[in-house]
Amino acid sequence: MKKYRKWFDHLAIIVLGMGDLDAYLFDWDELADVQKGDFLKTHLSQLNDRFIKKDENWQTTWKPFALLGFSIPPSIIGDFENGVMKYDPTHADGVLLINTETDGVFYCGSDNPDKLAIIMPKIKKMKIHESVMEEKFPVSNINFDYKINTSESSGAVLDEIDSLMKMSGLPGVQFV
Hints:
The chain is an alpha+beta fold. Helix content is 19%, strand content 27%.
């Protein structure tokens, strides 16, 4: 994960085969407890409910590190309803997590909010590129208590990720 620290607090483009996803990358360990609670409530509530039954401290093994598309905080992408838009995300949403024991990269999104799908067997295989926005968005300043508009992404994200992975020779989405 050290290799990717330079991307923390920035918007970046994660390349998956022949396609890409807009992402806000951050360091989970830098979030305050209140931010972590808001993050879990906003982005991973069903997954948290499922995992907490097995391990109360599941976030030490499964660490969120990226928000995709419409899941990126409004303070970064802007206020679409009022026409103030800083950034136009791809038609995706969700969270990327790393498994600290295997270094695998997993996806959780609105189309399967209680499941994790492996999208990269090892994080070192993930390609990240610069975004058009160079601005830094320190995670300490981010409010994770907001509503995500999934009307343009719900139900299609995993299918798209699966297609991108298969086109690039990867096995496709597998659930955990």
